Amino acid sequence: MAAPPTIQRRGLYIRGGWREPSLGRRLPVINPATEATIGDIPAATAEDVEIAVAAARDAFSRDGGRHWSRAPGAVRAKFLRAIAAKIKERKSDLALLETLDSGKPLDESDADMDDVAACFEYYADLAEALDGKQRSPISLPMENFKSFVLKEPIGVAGLITAWNYPLLMATWKVAPSLAAGCTAVLKPSELASLTCLELGAICIEVGLPPGVLNIITGLGPEAGAPLSSHPHVDKVAFTGSTETGKRIMTAAAQMVKPVSLELGGKSPLIVFDDVDIDKAVEWAIFGIFLNAGQVCSATSRLLLHEKIAKQFLDRLVAWAKNIKISDPLEKGCRLGSVISEGQYEKIKKFISRARSEGATILYGGARPQHLRRGFFIEPTIITDVSTSMQIWREEVFGPVLCIKEFRTESEAVELANDTHYGLGGAVISNDQERCDRITKALQCGIVWINCSQPTLVQAPWGGNKRSGFGRELGEWGLDNYLTVKQVTKYCSDEQWGWYQPPSKL
To answer: What residue stretches are annotated with the Aldehyde dehydrogenase domain (predicted)?
Structure first.
């Protein structure tokens, strides 16, 4: 087992340095795998938000934006690549810190840090390429006009992120916003902020201009809400619950402020009877038990063709029993703890209610017997589910899989789309034409064929319906932080000629 790194006592990262919160309050950091307090973070208030937004606004407009917002993309790319290099250099410590803060297996945190570095590098490339895409000509039917497009940074971005992938979710917003030329205020979840504060330390090391990125930690009502409603924040990007997303939309609407929202999900995985059972089973458990099911796109509703249901369930339970549940720092751990006591109790209530409504807990549903401390829940498989049950309709955000059988393709699609959410969906079948039909029929922003949950920095990520709107990652992620300006020039030497000229004296 790896030795824990030293937990640095950081302040708020504002204007390129550390600052204690205005009221001097701090929040405890709890290791969810041990329930031990391992440090604390600053508890920002509206006053701190004011200071952070002012710093970002100043950095955006300083010297006419020559140092950041209007600088060549290559200038911004240099800083993004330097951040990526520091992430790689400190990968082991950052991964360890992420695991201590969030309870996820160390192997998962390690992979997350690779993705963080790759994301910064990818958007460094897009920042450089942005210069060459400026002044893109527009084809016009008139010779006496010429028109082109400028893509400009939208301004100060308020970035509010979730706790399930603390540094990675932050990077999905920080990297493209900075690449676009925005300045930003990042507010990570109070449940997992340590690695985001370490990002501030990295920004100091690479010499990021003061105020370009500011990081405030604290509670949602005290820090997140003032940030999303702030009149000098030009754009809000949020990842989190649908209910909080509604409140952010309401606040932004008062100033007609653009928002992008990546919210909850209840994603389906449809498995047909022509598959390799064990291959499909592994994708099914990867799609729900990765990160203890705390994944917005988790394929938490498994739809099985009736011909293979019994065989599939037998193998599903066998694979679930083989998952190593342990202290997340132990080698080979594949299921760590959930994030907090509150989340632990919420998941247990979901399971209890499913049982009371008549569902069958086929496997799991309790604390692992060998782990007496920490917020651990066994991988849980629930059958005999009806579409009216809470377990079918609401997002659990835990290692809980509910299962229904189907007979026909049309029935499978109807069940898959029977949700208010629309983030992801998956189909496993050896019939490519069937996969193509279902891909078109699923009402969601992401479809996986013969797999579940691959996430690629080059490909768009986002949902429909109550899973939000807007797309992160890929070029779409950069577009989130750009505004399009049309420039049209009259090129003729002739008088326009719409009005009768006055008589010459």
So the answer is: 18-487
